[in-house]
Amino acid sequence: MTDHKPEGVSMGGDGDDGADLTPTVTLAQLYEEQGFLDKAAAVYKKLLVMEPDRAKLKNALEAVEKRLAASTPRPEKSETKTVLGHLTGWQKVIRERKKMLDQEGDKRRKILVIHGPNLNMLGRREPSVYGTATLEEIDEEIRKTAEECGMSADTFQSNHEGGLIEKIYEALDGYDVLIINAAAYTHTSVAIRDALLMLDIPIIEVHLSNIYRREPFRQKSMIADVATAQLAGFGKDGYTMAVRAAANMSRREKLTEESAESKST
């Protein structure tokens, strides 16, 4: 989410010291919890400027506006000073809770999704085999699904073997799960296989088409026995299925770690 402030949308109000808060769904929900419906509506409006087609935001805004319409009128000027005093206090509470949630977000487990050669041409490349969705649309679904699962996802695509290998190296320390569609390199690259062997995190191999019903040369995967799991033939849904599987794997791993820690104390 960027800090860009669209024209025509105000985050402030009478005495509101929260105008510099980055608009997020979490912030809007916190405003709702504290009864600041006008501020919650302002956050949702700002988010909708950036994501106008997101139905959940539209529904949330409509619900808040209905509550606003049914709420009592704003206080007269004689009451404003007292109200603003309470508002300032609640703003501090909201800031602290948002800070806590952001810190928890920084600790979220991370998924790295790697796309191999020619996948940047999805939507134009053999739609009857690979579907009509573009890579950008697939990546957006990946990120949204990861967020729904309490994780974050970074995506990367390269048509070059070396670039893919360099990106795999980044998973050595910075990620908890790797999802990879090596595309044509699936069938040929010993180098990518060797790079994957260095990882000690779950690896999920994804293919848009069912490679085992394709040409004979495509039916051999050089990385299948290195991967933790494989999804093939589900089209673009294979990626979101892999993200949900990654979340489950990560959750089980976390529970195992917590159990081991409790036994050692």
What are the defining features of this structure?
Rossmann fold; five-stranded parallel beta sheet; 2 domains; 265 residues; 52% helix; alpha/beta; globular
Describe the structure.
This protein is α/β, with parallel strands linked by helices and 265 residues long. The protein folds into two domains: 25-106, no CATH class; 110-264, Rossmann fold (3-Layer(aba) Sandwich). The protein contains nine helices and five strands. A five-stranded parallel sheet has the order 2-1-3-4-5, with helices on both faces. Helix 1 packs antiparallel against helix 2 (37-50).
Summarize the structure.
With 265 residues, the chain is α/β, with parallel strands linked by helices. It is built from 9 helices and 5 strands. Helix 6 (135-148) packs parallel to helix 9 and helix 7 (161-174) runs parallel beside helix 8 (190-197).
